[in-house]
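Internal tracking record. Fields below are filled automatically when a chain is submitted to the structure queue. Please do not edit lines marked as system-generated. If the sequence contains nonstandard residues, flag them in the REMARKS field before resubmitting.
Queue: standard
Priority: normal
Entity type: single polypeptide chain
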Amino acid sequence: MKHDSDTTGAAATVTPPPAAPAEGLTITCKFSKPKRGGHVCIIEPGSEPVEKPADAPPPVPTIVRSLVRAHSYERLIRSGAATSYADVAAMVKQTTARLSQLAMLLNLAPDVQAEILDLAEPENRGATVDEKEVRKIANEADWEKQRKAWREIQFKSEPTLAPTGGVAGGRRIRQ
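SYSTEM-GENERATED OUTPUT FOLLOWS
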């Protein structure tokens, strides 16, 4: 196997001894986990690394993943699998502060939540929405004010979107 990169950019090649069978062989090596956004690729001898297709859609936005996590953590509490966010935090190895941030997203108007989840669709992944801005919206109790603030964020993050008086069928309106 070849480890093609680490945090220092060093590469290491590990090959089994010729007499050792391929199955049941254990190789132990040390390597550093790359910093955030880094990439580690382990390549077997005789194989080529798989390149990401050029036409692959961008990854699902962080705000979508955060909202989905917030709903799943809430479901754990409602189902009785956990009794509090502190229990959930211990289960998912997150701080209670982070879970509180995610729980704030549940205060968003249902149609705003639906539009955030729509960002997971490949054709909508170009928009970049900052989670901090969305959490500020969630602090507002009035859903109409939330909707207005959400439209402003949408327009700012994706210039092809026109600010509208509402949504059409839970979908954003494109020009």
